[in-house]
Write a structure and sequence with these properties.
This protein has 7 helices and 14 strands. It has 327 residues and is α/β, with parallel strands linked by helices.
């Protein structure tokens, strides 16, 4: 998603509260909560702490987005400042744990790290967790190549080596440090590896961007159960082949996309890049333009014309998110 949304990934378009599938992340591991649910959320660095406060009492984890990984295993901390400390302190005051998101959407950087700088990145992550008073790390490496361009080795093997190194580095320093990573809904081949499960506390499934910002046609951002396309249920079932259900967190979007389109019909050709729309704004706009429920994807959308051009906005609301929560 990095290049597609100019690095402001849809995961972090706003403070995104995420579902929940963990029946206490790894009973007996770092987090031994007896709760049957874990609520994981992201706080993007561009959301000012003074402008927004979530219901902290319902959250389990908040991951601050983000630090970029460099090819040599160092970390760019330009996004970590006063806002982070405000978020961290508020979270901790409500017994919410804070992780740091480490991201890379650049396959060349990923290859460099996996080929020769695994230990460096693991040590730098530990140092930043300790320095910033965080409780763990969330790894967000997307669109990884199946074969490393530097060593010509399979990247799933190198990723396994890195995650083991990261686990050993963090858990030896503090067994309580939480380790998780993101997997896109298509389930990248690098992550189709059951051995990875033993190195993490949770895996975060991006249950969104089935239609994304620069897609060629309009459609559901997060279809639940749709016979005409890949959907959330497909992704979960595929992921369960490699990871136990109690380690899977299903991520859901609090956003949608507004695409200029060739017509007002669902699935129309897009006429340019879409624009991200907050769920709360889409819900209000749908009252003006008319909310349409797509029976296939179980998500809402609406359409309107501007300067003679059709626009379609596909999003999620209380009803569609509720169905995924029930699932």
């Amino acid at each position: 998603m990095g290049d597609r949304i100019n690095k402001n990934t849809s995961k972090a378009i706003l403070f995104l509260v995420i579902l929940i599938t963990l029946s206490a992340i790894n009973a007996g591991a770092a987090d031994s909560s007896s709760s049957s649910k874990v609520i994981y959320a992201f706080w993007p660095y561009w959301i000012d702490f003074q402008s927004y406060q979530p219901d902290w009492d319902i959250l389990s984890y908040a991951s601050y987005f983000s630090m970029e990984a460099n090819p040599n295993g160092t970390l760019n901390t330009k996004n970590i400042g006063t806002n982070y400390y405000n978020v961290r302190d508020a979270a901790h005051a409500h017994n919410v744990k804070v992780t740091l998101t480490v991201e890379s959407f650049n396959p060349d950087i990923q290859d460099s790290i996996l080929a020769g700088n695994q230990k460096e990145l693991a040590m730098n992550i530990l140092q930043k967790i300790q320095y910033y008073g965080a409780d763990g790390v969330f790894i967000d490496f997307e669109d990884i190549r199946s074969t490393n361009s530097i060593t010509q080795e399979p990247n799933n093997i190198l990723m396994g080596n890195f995650m083991k190194t990261l686990r050993d580095t963090l858990k030896n320093a503090s067994p309580g440090y939480h380790i998780s990573f993101a997997i896109q809904h298509s389930i990248n081949s690098v992550y189709r590896d059951a051995t990875l499960s033993q190195y993490i506390d949770a895996v975060f499934l991006m249950g969104y961007d089935y239609h994304w910002l620069n897609d060629t046609s309009t459609g559901a951002v997060s279809p639940l159960n749709d016979a005409t396309q890949q959907d959330v249920e497909n992704s979960v079932k595929m992921l369960e082949k490699y990871y136990p259900p109690d380690k899977i967190i299903l991520g859901m979007p609090f956003h949608g996309y507004d695409w200029p389109s060739s017509s007002g019909e669902p699935g129309a050709k897009t006429m340019g890049a879409g624009t991200a729309v907050y769920m709360k704004n889409a819900t209000v706009n749908a009252k003006t333009y008319g909310r349409i429920r797509d029976s296939g994807s179980h998500t809402p959308w609406y359409r309107y014309q501007s300067n003679g051009v059709w626009h379609q906005v596909w999003y999620d609301d209380d009803e569609s998110l509720g169905l995924k929560l029930d699932y």
